[in-house]
Each structure stands twice: as structure tokens, then as C-alpha cells.
Amino acid sequence: MAVSINRRKPKPSKKAETNEHCSCATFLFKILSRIPLGILLLILVYLWSSSTTIISGKIVHICVSSRKLNNLYCLSAGTQPKFEIPVPLINNSFTSPGSTSNIKDIDASPGSNSSVAEYVKAASTPEPIADRKEIANALSSSTIGNIKEVANVYTKDSIPAVIDGTDKNRYEEIAIAKKAVKEQLHLHRSWMSNTNHASCDGRGVYVYDLPSKFNKDLIGQCGDMMPWTDFCKYFNNEALGEPIADLGKGWYHTHQYSLEPIFHSRILTHPCRVYNESEAKLFYVPYYGGLDILRWHFKNVSGDVKDSLAMDLMKWLEHRRPWVQNSGTDHVFVLGKISWDFRRKDYTSWGTRFLELEQMQNPIKLLIERQPWEVNDIAIPHPTFFHPHSDDDIVAWQQKIIGTARKNLVSFAGAARPDQPESIRSTLINQCTSKSSDKCQFLDCKSGGCDQPESVTKLFLESEFCLQPPGDSPTRKSVFDSLVSGCIPVLFDPFTAYYQYPWHLPEDHGKYSVFIDQEEVRQMKVNVVGRLSSISARERDDMRRYIVYELLPGLVYGDSSCRFEKFQDAFSITVNTLLERVSRMQ
């Protein structure tokens, strides 16, 4: 956070200033002279290796990396005299000193200060409200959760009489926005088919053979993507990562951003793949857009450079008959990061503008987190650590889950967000670690405890409920890690799962999760551990059996050579639904 402060002080005389500088320099020299040269060198090497300098326009950022890519702690300064650095108002929402903001104006409920921008980078800060989508982007997800009873059915005529004026308008806007999300999810679910087609007749999938710069060459740059870690190891074994022997067959150290190459590997061996464009109904474009973003994360380059590969891809596609013939409506892209990372605004440098391009409005985009008001954004599960090869692998894991004794009522694997005032994580950690509570287990990710899949999986296997508050964005990979371990997720924001995964999670979210409004937690109106203690063992068992036997197979991605007869995994459900959609378009 950069803050501009202007306070006039009497200007010291040059003599006094010189004496002060000499005194400080002498004092500093005495201190440094007492430190052994070897130790001093180690300190300097450590500071150099754990920090990154980024020059963005007229601002210099000195950043120290933390455990996760998204957790950088930066000190910013202007490169020119009297340059005013934008000052954060609410988390990632920025304004320049002296400018006005309408963030308070779009706040939809008394006492609520958050906006959807709290979950995205500075690139997705809401602009002034102009239409339904912008209203929705600006609304607080916690606010939407608070008024679930209001927004389900309200129209202009049905807003409660006690609400009037500005508040009434806000409730109307929220009702419209939430209704739009539900309508889109209903449309997405309507594409699904209960029939598991045995034949590929009329269901051909064509995979573009793109120049390697759009995919394989990006993986080749893995060593330069994250300065503080070996990112290349995650691309071993067809991007599943290294095997985890302690967890058994089918378990790998998979990175959360590995979806693009994982999906690509699977679709290359899909039984409905065709090599003649005229035989295809669905066209897959294997562009690794998420890796394209990552490679520029810590480099001082312009927005045009960040967008250059995506623009090259558009030019390449414009010379392909199938793309031109249907304007991309029968094409699909798989992107391994959240939608906001591909929607860079003019006033920021974060991410690319790939999904803002006019040519990208018709195709289907599969992402780990969708923009809830973009109808062609579809969220599919984050990759987990489990990648079964056969039906037997799934059945064996199901039996292990059901037979595991769960000694913890509640667990939370995560870290506090002290730089996000609206985050409820600190409150949850305090409730979990309270001396009066012996029912909750906390795994602190800040200390690196979550870097080992074995530790996280063991915790979830031993827990009845797993707390899943929003983090850097509404969705969490941890939600799927908990489900795959048979741990019932406790959600605090409907955007974490309920408005995201229409093909892989049911509309009746009470079957597999518990919802506690984060605003209640924020205002200390509820003790989460106490609330969960009131759920009976029978209810917990019913939810777990539904998760294990009904949901789990469809939440994992099999390995590149997997063969399933009894089950459909996340990949199969996705491709079958896409084929059903394009078949109905004919």
C-alpha cells in the first residue's frame, strides 16, 4: 500500500543538515563495522534472493515473495518528483489522491464495505455502474449472501415496504444481478445429458495443431515463471507433477495452475477425436493462456507485450475455416487461471485482455473460476492431487474415505489475510484455536504447512467439516481437496462454489456443503464451531456418503491414459456436455 502524505515542516539549514547526515553516517558505519563480513554478505544475499523489483510505468515496486504466487508484500514509490501513487480505498480498489469514488454509493447493505473487487486483482476494480453486469461486478458477494431471501424472487413491486429510496434501488439491483446469475446457471445445466453416449457418430472433436509458441514453448519457460520456486517439476508426468508415494496409487503433487496441459493431454486421446475438420462438431484450441500470463508476472513489460501472443492467436484463427464459419461458437478454450486475470482494465497492468477481445465473446471458456455474469464463462473443477487410472482406483479410494475415523469435528487449512480488512479468516482462526474449543484443528499455511499435499489430505481425511473462506478470489482449490477427502466443505460466500460449477456440483448445495454467511462471522454473530456442533451425526453421514459416492468421481481428472467404464470423471463430464451443447446448436 502506498500512501501520499504532504506535511510542511520548517526547512533545516544546510549546516544542520550536513551535521545530521555526518552523524547518521558515522553511527551506521560503526554498526556495520561490528558485523562480521560473512554474516553481512549472507544477509545481503538473502534480501536479494527473496525480493523482486518491478517497474510499472512511473511506479517502482520492491516485493518480497511469500508462500503463494498471489501473496507478495510490496513497497511502492514513484520514479518522478511529486508523482501521486494511487491509494487503495478498499483492498484492491484504487483511486488517486483528490479523486472521488462511488464505492460507498454501490454498497448494498448497511455496514457492508466490501465489493467483488476484494476478490480480484487491481485489474478488475469495478468501474462506475452503468449496466447490469457492472452493477453485479460491483456488488459485494457477502451482501448478496446476506439478502438471499430478498434476491431470490424480488421484483420492483415485491421489494419490502420498509425499504425505500436508495436502499430500495440497491436491493433491486442485487435482485436483478443474482437472478441473472441463476438464469445463466440454469442454462448451463440444461446442456447436460443423462445419456452416456457409446458412439462418437456426429460427435467429433477436432484439436487444432497450434504452433508450439502457444503451448509447449510456454511450458519450456517454466524455470523463469516463479523466481522463488522450481515450477518445472509440476509439469512432469503430463503436468500431473511428481507421484506422492505416501498417499498411494494415483496421487501426484499437482499445481493449481496445471489445468491447461492436463486437459490437453486428455483430449488428444479422446475416443471422439477426429483429424478432419469437416467431421467435427467441437473445436478445441490448446492455448495455454494461464501460463502466458504467468511468464510476464514479474517482468517489466507493457500491456501490448502481454497481449501479443493472444493477438497472434486471433490472427492465426482468422485464417481457419471452422473459426470463421460459426464465429467461434463451436470452439472451446481451457484456461487454468481465474477469469479476472484475462480481463485487464486500462488503468492497471495485471493480466491480459484476452477475454475482453471481441473475437472471444462467442467461444466457450472453461476456467477454474468464471466471471459470474459472462454466459460463455464456465467453471470446471480445480485439479486436485488425485488422478485415478481406472474405476478400481476410485472405488478403493471411496472405501478408504468411508472407513477413516474422523477425530476432528472441524479443520481449517489456510492463513490469515491481515492486508484484507474484510477477510473473515482471522476470526475463523481465532474461533478454531480458542482454548474453549477442542473440536477444531488449524493448519497454518503461512508457515508452509500446506505445501505438502500429504499434510493437507491427512487433515481433511480426519475432519468432519472443512472451513473454506474466500482467499485471493472467491473460489478455492481447497474446496475440491476437501470433497475428494470426504470432508464436508463449509462455505461463507455463494460465489465460492454455488455460482461456479454447474456441471459438477448440484443445484441443491445443502446435499454436500454447509453455508454460513460471512457477514454473520464478520459481525461476530455466530460461532462457527458451535454452529457445526449442532449438526447431527446422521446428517453428517448422509452428506458424506453423497459426496463420496455421487460427487467424487466427477470432481477428479484421471491420468492421461485412464480408462473408466463405470464412472465419468471431471474431464468426461465436461467434454460430454460440450458435445451435447454443440449438437443442439445444429
TrEMBL record:
InterPro entries: Exostosin, Exostosin_GT47. The keyword Amino-acid biosynthesis does not apply. The keyword Membrane applies. Residues 200-525 form the Exostosin GT47 domain. It is a single-pass type II membrane protein. It is found in: Golgi apparatus membrane. It holds the Pfam family Exostosin_GT47. GO terms for cellular component: Golgi membrane. GO terms for molecular function: glycosyltransferase activity. This is Xyloglucan galactosyltransferase KATAMARI1-like isoform X1. It comes from Populus alba.
